[in-house]
Design brief:
The protein has about 160 residues and is α+β, with helices and mostly antiparallel strands. It contains five helices and four strands, in the order αβαβαββαα. The radius of gyration is 17 Å and the shape is globular.
């Protein structure tokens, strides 16, 4: 597939060397249909219809894989290294978390694999007990956001 063929024919702007914060049509509230779908699916999967969650979907010129920046807020404090070890030892998760050596999940590495790649795990200083992490998975093998949600479920369960 020649990426040059993915120009403005399909998207409102050229996709080559670009990121478009726009997947599906915009609703009156400023969210796209895809973002509303992600919010509703997350609430449904977690069984929490009033869960405060948001999303911005971005179309990026990669052949395959979904990449997500996820923020999670816990009820209690936690030890960051214990959280990383928990993820590292969880089945189906590959921890790639050494930013000082530029080790973090990449879409090209997740493509063709069943595992979910997690990294850039750090405290989220916008809330008292939060983390921010970067999660990448092959969206064809694992589904749109199912494994990211499974990770969040496990983290919520443990705290």
């Amino acid at each position: 597939m020649d990426l040059k063929e993915c120009g403005p024919k399909k998207f409102p702007y050229p996709i080559i060397n670009n990121c478009l914060p726009h997947i599906d049509v915009f609703e009156e509230n400023g969210y796209t249909k895809e973002e509303i779908k992600m919010i509703n699916e997350t609430r449904k999967i977690l069984g929490k219809p009033n869960l405060k969650v948001t999303a911005t979907t971005v179309r990026v010129p990669v052949l395959n894989s979904h990449s997500e920046s996820i923020n999670v807020e816990f009820e209690n404090d936690f030890i960051l290294e214990e959280l990383k070890q928990l993820l590292k030892n969880s089945p189906g998760i590959i921890l790639e978390d050494n930013p000082s050596k530029n080790v973090y999940p990449l879409a090209q590495n997740a493509n063709g694999h069943d595992e979910v790649y997690v990294g850039r795990i750090r405290r989220d200083y916008s809330v008292p007990f939060g983390i921010n992490m970067w999660v990448v998975a092959d969206n064809i093998r694992k589904g749109a956001a199912s494994n990211a949600i499974q990770i969040v479920e496990k983290l919520i369960e443990l705290n």
